[in-house]
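Reposting from the mailing list since nobody answered there.

I have sequence plus structure tokens for a pair of proteins and want to know whether others read the tokens the same way I do. The first protein:
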Amino acid sequence: MDKLVITVTTDSTGSYPRNPYLTPCTDARGVAEEYLRALDAGAAIVHTHGAYTHDPVIQPDGRKLSIPDMQGWRDISQRIRARFNPIMQFGMASMRLEQKLELWETLRPDMSSINFNSHDEYFQPDPEYPPFSVYSVHPINELREYARLAKERSVKLEIECFSTGAYWAIGKIRSGDFWTDEGVREQEPGLLADPLWLTLFFGWDGQSWNPPTVRALQYMVDNLPPNANWSMSCMEPPVYWSMVAHTIAVGGHVRIGMEDCPYLEDGVYAKTNAELVEKAVRIAREIGRDVASPEEARRIVGL
């Protein structure tokens, strides 16, 4: 069994807006400091949303997505890289391709997120707050373009999987056999380098919801595509730590942080993301699994 790779994601402004300890997304110094503490605690991958705004309503292109603040992303990335050399994984799969491309070319992340299902997310854990929603379809030819552009820029994709439909899409991209919108058949093999890195999502509200249960997790694991490493993200506080423990025990990797679950235990907020990472490290060590350093994580991830 590989050492455990811990990804940390700190931004809970959309998922848990009443978290009294969340780091404001517009505060680059505060966001970076949270990541630095989490890396000290044992995280190896920084999954950052940088700084961003959000489409207020569905736009003429049929999407409701996030809009990156390029300077905010630059500030956060530079502050982290000045102290550590973690795997920099640019999150926010809910971003338009041209904006991803600008981030890839200017800030050179190691990895970047892309949803191989459709985006249909509707976060409203607190009924007193309006929902934070994201909508976008990702057709095969768009995924093909993402994969080609990422390969050309030496960016490894973090493939987000909300259901096994994402595995089908992986198979299509791996096949290299495509039809253009004009009905022309084209071959473009080798777009996804092995091993893949997948994040499996459970309990994320919206019509892409996957139940946050061990049985659902095992179903996703039993049907994994070949040559794939996987990490688990869960947004369901009552079962979060049991899902983390099960994932660690069966050889998966975990995503930890206030975006997914800001609680150390029922009703008890962590004051920092580092406290959450420390708990995951304790769970791993108590069942005899070592935690990967950033250098070891690079080998496991396939960078």
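The second protein, same order (residues first, tokens after):
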Amino acid sequence: MPYKMIQVGTGGWGATWCSRWLPPNIKDGLVEVVAAIDANPDALVNARQGLGLRADQCYTDLRKAFDENPADFCTIVAPPAFHEQVVDIALAHDLHILSEKPIADTLEASVRIAAKVKRAGKKMGVTMSHRFDQDKTTLRRELRSGRNGALDYLVCRFTCDCRKFASWGKFRHEILDALMVEGAVHHLDILADLSGARCDTLYAQTWNPPWGEYAGDSQGLVTMHFGNGTRAMYEGAKTNAVGLNGWTNEYVRAECEGATLVMDQRRIERFAHVAGNAWSAGQAGQGEPLALIDQPKWANAWLIEKFVHWLDGGEMMETNVEDNLQSVALIFAAIESSRTGQAVKVQQLLASARQSQLA
């Protein structure tokens, strides 16, 4: 029997859920969407067209939708500032939750949500879609294969030309720290995952150039030091003259003892170390190409399947809400570091946020 679910958010990215991420899992008999909600009634056409819902299954009133449609879980595909409100209603209706990143718009709210879910005895996953994309998953497998030796450091580049207002979705241009909250939340999470350890220390500089039509910072440079000694550097930009590595086409370089691994525009190459060849120079297209892993589902479609298997009693999602607090802590550590000009101890920041909720 498929799990009955309520889709919260059908406009913007929610439209992609309706057209791309949910249909494969509906077809596989894993989920049945019983209702959809969006504050904009015009966006509900996406639920009718993509999910085949009737007009009476589409709502603009959040509470009414939950009251009238018994379900097993809900999704949350809404701006982060609204996540806690939806979580509260879902838990009041005894539902599990699968939410878009980040958990919430502040670290404190994220910690509260994780605590509420735990007290309620429910399961909550977070869809870190980029980490579970095809190229990143292939790179992760290669790094963990052992054939490249110890990992020394990582570099990630994500650059776009979304300087004009609403070119990255209107709400992102209106929130503070748009790059960190809506972009780097994926990329810092990927770097932490590839490193294989929790981040210890983080230093960041973020800003918005005069030509960036944002309410807050749209550009950023971040350095990270992980508990196992691995280091990472991140370049994120939403207001560049041209996009070199935009969404799903990010550049990641992994410097290992025995090889350099380069992921760029969804291609991965391996450049093996050659002893005695001190002046060797690797060039794009001249390395050993690595075949990408092939499977039916990627990104959120795969994560929905993982969530359902977790509900079935299977393995816990890697991005369960408690573990995903690490990802949220990274972006708010970066925001704090930029504002104070000081490096931030990430685990101390998270511990402090947890303690404040107990006070």
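Reply #1 (J.P.):
I read it the same way you do. The chain has two domains: 3-130+299-320, 131-289.
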